[in-house]
């Protein structure tokens, strides 16, 4: 364990991390992670982070040493895609039992490694440490070393038990394992001046493949992607790349900085979300490669591809502009997406009314300020109720977030879109951003919302769930408020006449949206509100079918 | 009798099992205004939470004592205390249900003592409902966590009653196993009510995880059985336990309140439901309502229609003991063979599974057995999808988690109606598989010898 704590200190001292560099010695020792609040935390652990970072290596066996909880409760839960091997989706764990806890689990771990090699013969095995074996002192480094020598195969210990800290610390500890045991241990068959590494890209929903064709066309080779659709051999050879791009914010900044120190591979931090960011990233890659000796015409190729793709993407997005005019987005996500998606959304004319910065670094926050101006609404940490209040007060038309917070929006009949790892669509590059716009459009203009916002005809109570949620907060939580939202009056609360079902603003939104194109929908809206008024005037039972009839 | 064997591999491949603490938390999710709390590192909670959200597509309350490396060595009490105080202040729950995890059990935290100390130090929590259950990750499985937690709820939350006290003859306690869905509980409630019986479900996930839009904005569970109702369960005339796992809780109820219990190990299939409906008729003194006479006929007819497709199937099934026993039995009774059976933990029902052998193992074992024994139908939770694809056989999802199909909370397998839906779904799956993947071709029935004869014949023609 002494080496683990040394590694963690090392990670905190990372040269490329300005957040830590600016801290005092004492502060730095405390580490990146805020002390977690018992009863008020919900994030993943370091093991989770390490597994997320390395699991996309497709041809490797990922063996989790611990009781069933760590792997049994979590396996096959990420949408990374593979172009070939599927061993990464097979789950391996030592499923430690009580006897192992008493007598030690090292022998079981060794046998498990042996069984995997006999049955699957993978190019390498990653062995993940978890809390219980770490507590009882199982030395996975030693077991891996012996197994590697015995079986003549890389067996890599990933020392990141859950209780040492957060998910992002786990990402970095995974990076440390790569630096110590993988990178630089093999040689590529050949090298070119066009070889790059992508660091921190996990190929979720196959989104790497939205970028790869462009790189192929320009003539740039991804020598190694760490770790999306990655293979062991590629990662082991990655030290021969000419340049690197750090794709997912600072999740694996230690890998990028150490590779620069050790092998002189320059890197930059970029994003493939959004048209301009994608173009910028492609240009930077080309520029870096040229600086390191690639022929100058690489830039011409890049510019040609960028110009063509941009034109196509802008043209595709153009049709959304009128539909997105005045539409507001609340973005609740972490790290890199807090700014990279902001840019992408702004390109399509959406207005961002707030973005969460819980998992973002100070650099991320600066970028947000640049993009959104000084009154950028950065949200630190929200309870679900605050998030809901925010949705209403900021009058967001749609929320983009990760899966766990989706119900805050959905249960309030506010459109929502998943932009985290569980999502099923790929949003990268020029094609991805168009896809994202399509999804947002589908969500915003789904006719279902109008129906869902109505209470049941027999529900007479005026005290709705929304009203309760907007009531005075009984438990004020510090730091949870946006910078400037809240002063405005809540326009959504203006109901049409005494009808409690249709908002003014909803109708107002729908009229210009449909005015030029869909007259039926206008009729639908008019009919719906007319039906409502009729109901209140005549005080007759509602006619729930009227809106449907109008549609037909 | 069926032989129960243990997989002897050191490495579990594709786990079937999930951990005991989240089985315990799952039970707490069936209480109203509850906040389940795992005493352990935050990852234990995060993984469990994600699993529940993916299955139910619902917001799920689940908290953590956020044990760090340092508190694992030095602390424990402070984390439990802080967590309870924070939850009490922030979300105002009606009950906090605590399960231990691998870390805190290895460490040896005496949480019952912690709770006594917390009550002492914070008088406002003196009467606040706190239930603690020891559920180490390195022992037992999901179903055991549920079993122990419900039994503990009975011991802590039900007011003890003098056995001689009068009981409400139309009130029953229902103790459902963790293999029942919110849809199952809703169906059971309807059946009870049709007999004029008022059921109290403990736990009642149909109130909290059925996917409704809540009236209140709450961070605890949005429904379920209330602590007040649990306290009065001793007044019921009967306790009905569903699944062998619930025997423990039913016995605890009987010991505490004198309420007799009847255990139904299965509620899927014709005969088990005949017994169940007869029992309800007996205890309520009402004749069987027309609806159930009709439903029985419908199930019988459904069995007639579906047996062509189900009979003869070589079933490979991986599920927790009670679900395994239930589904494999109903299919066996319709002519299927239970060819490969894998489960997660020991149970008295395993020796009565209609198979030669039940393996306590993983989906890797199930896949190997299914391949070796040429099974042609796979049933397990969603994690079986890779095995089914590799085996190229139809795959029916059952149990928890089902994360790659919608409506998991509303699937139903209890009662005549639930059984009918289950066998229709299965038969349809088999039909679809046949149409998509098993269409006959001219070569389907051709053997090697026939080919040789034909070439000989061709030569003759020339």
UniProtKB/TrEMBL annotation, chain A:
<dbReference type="GO" id="GO:0016163">
    <property type="term" value="F:nitrogenase activity"/>
</dbReference>
<dbReference type="GO" id="GO:0065003">
    <property type="term" value="P:protein-containing complex assembly"/>
</dbReference>
<dbReference type="InterPro" id="IPR049939">
    <property type="entry name" value="NifE-like"/>
</dbReference>
<comment type="similarity">
    <text>Belongs to the NifD/NifK/NifE/NifN family.</text>
</comment>
<protein>
    <recommendedName>
        <fullName>Nitrogenase iron-molybdenum cofactor biosynthesis protein NifE</fullName>
    </recommendedName>
</protein>
<keyword id="KW-0535">Nitrogen fixation</keyword>
<feature type="domain" description="Nitrogenase/oxidoreductase component 1">
    <location>
        <begin position="45"/>
        <end position="444"/>
    </location>
</feature>
<dbReference type="InterPro" id="IPR005973">
    <property type="entry name" value="NifE"/>
</dbReference>
<dbReference type="Pfam" id="PF00148">
    <property type="entry name" value="Oxidored_nitro"/>
</dbReference>
<dbReference type="InterPro" id="IPR000318">
    <property type="entry name" value="Nase_comp1_CS"/>
</dbReference>
<dbReference type="InterPro" id="IPR000510">
    <property type="entry name" value="Nase/OxRdtase_comp1"/>
</dbReference>
<comment type="function">
    <text>This protein may play a role in the biosynthesis of the prosthetic group of nitrogenase (FeMo cofactor).</text>
</comment>
<comment type="pathway">
    <text>Cofactor biosynthesis; Fe-Mo cofactor biosynthesis.</text>
</comment>
TrEMBL record, chain B:
<dbReference type="InterPro" id="IPR000318">
    <property type="entry name" value="Nase_comp1_CS"/>
</dbReference>
<comment type="similarity">
    <text>Belongs to the NifD/NifK/NifE/NifN family.</text>
</comment>
<protein>
    <recommendedName>
        <fullName>Nitrogenase iron-molybdenum cofactor biosynthesis protein NifN</fullName>
    </recommendedName>
</protein>
<dbReference type="InterPro" id="IPR005975">
    <property type="entry name" value="Nase_Mo-Fe_CF"/>
</dbReference>
<dbReference type="InterPro" id="IPR000510">
    <property type="entry name" value="Nase/OxRdtase_comp1"/>
</dbReference>
<comment type="function">
    <text>This protein may play a role in the biosynthesis of the prosthetic group of nitrogenase (FeMo cofactor).</text>
</comment>
<dbReference type="InterPro" id="IPR050152">
    <property type="entry name" value="ChlB/BchB/BchZ"/>
</dbReference>
<keyword id="KW-0535">Nitrogen fixation</keyword>
<dbReference type="GO" id="GO:0065003">
    <property type="term" value="P:protein-containing complex assembly"/>
</dbReference>
<dbReference type="Pfam" id="PF00148">
    <property type="entry name" value="Oxidored_nitro"/>
</dbReference>
<comment type="pathway">
    <text>Cofactor biosynthesis; Fe-Mo cofactor biosynthesis.</text>
</comment>
<dbReference type="GO" id="GO:0016163">
    <property type="term" value="F:nitrogenase activity"/>
</dbReference>
<feature type="domain" description="Nitrogenase/oxidoreductase component 1">
    <location>
        <begin position="19"/>
        <end position="430"/>
    </location>
</feature>
């Amino acid at each position: 364990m002494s080496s683990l704590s040394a590694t963690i200190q090392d990670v905190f001292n990372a040269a490329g991390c300005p957040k830590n560099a600016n801290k005092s010695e004492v502060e730095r020792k405390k580490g990146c992670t805020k002390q977690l609040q018992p009863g008020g935390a919900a994030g993943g652990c370091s093991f989770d982070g390490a597994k997320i970072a390395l699991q996309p290596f497709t041809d490797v066996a990922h063996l989790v040493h611990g009781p069933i909880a760590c792997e049994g409760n979590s396996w096959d839960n990420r949408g990374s895609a593979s172009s070939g091997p599927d061993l990464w989706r097979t789950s391996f764990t030592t499923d430690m039992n009580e006897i192992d806890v008493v007598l030690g689990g090292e022998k079981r771990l060794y046998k498990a490694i042996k069984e995997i090699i006999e049955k699957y013969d993978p190019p390498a095995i990653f062995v993940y440490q978890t809390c219980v074996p770490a507590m009882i002192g199982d030395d996975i480094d030693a077991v891996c070393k012996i197994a590697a020598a015995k079986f003549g195969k890389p067996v890599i210990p990933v020392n990141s038990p859950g209780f040492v800290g957060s998910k992002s610390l786990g990402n970095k500890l995974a990076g440390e394992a790569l630096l110590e045991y993988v990178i630089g241990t093999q040689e590529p068959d050949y090298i070119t001046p066009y070889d790059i590494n992508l660091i921190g890209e996990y190929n979720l929903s196959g989104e790497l493949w939205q970028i790869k064709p462009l790189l192929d066309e320009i003539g740039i080779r991804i020598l190694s992607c760490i770790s999306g659709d990655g293979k062991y051999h590629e990662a082991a050879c990655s030290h021969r790349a000419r340049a690197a791009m750090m794709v997912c914010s600072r999740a694996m900044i230690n890998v990028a900085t150490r590779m620069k120190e050790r092998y002189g591979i320059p890197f930059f931090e970029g994003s493939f979300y959004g048209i301009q960011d994608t173009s910028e990233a492609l240009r930077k890659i080309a520029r870096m490669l040229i600086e390191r000796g690639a022929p100058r015409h690489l830039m011409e190729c890049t510019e040609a591809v960028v110009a063509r793709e941009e034109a196509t993407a802008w043209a595709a997005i153009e049709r959304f502009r009128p539909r997105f005019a005045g539409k507001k987005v609340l973005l609740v996500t972490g790290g890199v997406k807090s700014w990279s998606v902001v840019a992408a959304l702004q390109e399509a004319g959406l207005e961002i009314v707030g973005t969460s910065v819980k998992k973002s670094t100070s650099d991320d926050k600066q970028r947000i300020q640049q993009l959104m101006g000084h009154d950028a609404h950065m949200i630190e940490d929200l309870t679900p109720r605050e998030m809901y209040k925010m949705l209403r007060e900021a009058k967001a038309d749609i929320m983009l977030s990760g899966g766990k917070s989706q119900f805050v929006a959905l249960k309030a009949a506010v459109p929502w879109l998943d932009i985290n790892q569980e999502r099923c669509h790929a949003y990268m590059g020029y094609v991805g951003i168009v896809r994202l716009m399509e999804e947002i459009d589908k969500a915003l203009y789904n006719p279902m919302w109008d129906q869902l916002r109505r209470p049941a005809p027999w529900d007479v109570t005026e005290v709705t769930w929304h009203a309760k949620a907007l009531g005075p907060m009984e438990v004020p939580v510090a730091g949870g408020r946006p910078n400037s939202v809240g002063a405005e009056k809540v326009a959504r609360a203006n109901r049409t006449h005494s009808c409690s079902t249709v908002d003014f603003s909803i109708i107002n939104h729908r009229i210009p949206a449909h005015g030029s194109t869909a007259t039926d929908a206008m009729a639908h809206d008019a009919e719906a509100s007319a039906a409502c008024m009729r109901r209140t005037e005549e005080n007759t039972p509602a006619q729930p079918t009227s809106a449907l009839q109008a549609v037909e | 009798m069926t032989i129960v064997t243990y997989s002897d591999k050191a490495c579990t491949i594709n786990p079937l099992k999930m951990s005991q603490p989240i089985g315990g938390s799952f039970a707490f999710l069936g209480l109203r205004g509850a906040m389940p709390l795992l005493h352990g590192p935050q990852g234990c909670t995060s993984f469990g939470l994600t699993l529940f959200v993916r299955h139910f597509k619902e917001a799920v309350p689940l908290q953590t004592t956020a044990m760090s490396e340092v508190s694992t060595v030095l602390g424990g009490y402070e984390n439990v205390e802080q967590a309870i105080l924070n939850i009490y202040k922030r979300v105002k729950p009606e009950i906090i249900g605590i399960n231990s995890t691998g870390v805190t059990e290895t460490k040896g935290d005496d949480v019952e003592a912690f709770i006594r100390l917390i009550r002492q130090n914070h008088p406002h929590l003196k009467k606040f409902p706190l239930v603690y259950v020891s559920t180490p990750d390195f022992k037992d499985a999901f179903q055991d966590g549920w079993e122990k937690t419900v039994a503990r709820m009975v011991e802590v939350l039900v007011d003890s009653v003098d056995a001689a006290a009068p009981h409400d003859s139309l009130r029953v306690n229902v103790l459902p196993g963790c293999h029942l869905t919110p849809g199952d509980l809703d169906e059971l409630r309807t059946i009870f009510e049709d007999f004029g019986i008022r059921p109290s479900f403990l736990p009642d996930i149909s109130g909290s995880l059925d996917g409704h839009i809540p009236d209140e904005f709450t961070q605890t569970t949005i429904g379920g059985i209330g602590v007040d109702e649990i306290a009065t369960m001793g007044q019921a005339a009967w306790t009905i336990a569903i699944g062998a796992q619930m025997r423990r809780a039913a016995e605890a109820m009987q010991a505490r309140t004198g309420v007799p219990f009847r255990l139904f190990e299965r509620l899927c299939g014709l005969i088990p439901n005949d017994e169940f409906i007869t029992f309800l008729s007996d205890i309520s003194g009402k004749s069987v309502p027309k609806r159930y006479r009709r439903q029985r006929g419908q199930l019988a007819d459904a069995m007639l229609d579906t047996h062509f497709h189900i009979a003869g199937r070589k079933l490979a099934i991986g599920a927790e003991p009670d679900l395994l026993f239930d589904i494999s039995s109903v299919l066996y009774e319709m002519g299927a063979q239970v060819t490969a059976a894998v489960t997660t933990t020991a149970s008295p029902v395993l020796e009565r599974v209609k198979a030669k052998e039940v393996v306590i193992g993983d989906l890797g074992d199930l896949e190997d057995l299914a391949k070796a024994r040429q099974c042609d139908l796979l049933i397990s939770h969603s994690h079986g999808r890779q095995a089914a694809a590799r085996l190229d056989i139809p795959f029916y999802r059952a149990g928890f988690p089902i994360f790659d199909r919608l409506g998991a909370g509303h699937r139903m397998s209890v009662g005549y109606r639930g059984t009918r839906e289950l066998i229709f779904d299965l038969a349809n799956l088999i039909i679809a598989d046949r149409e998509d993947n098993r269409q006959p071709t001219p070569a389907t029935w051709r053997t090697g010898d026939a080919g040789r004869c034909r070439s000989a014949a061709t030569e003759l023609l020339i």
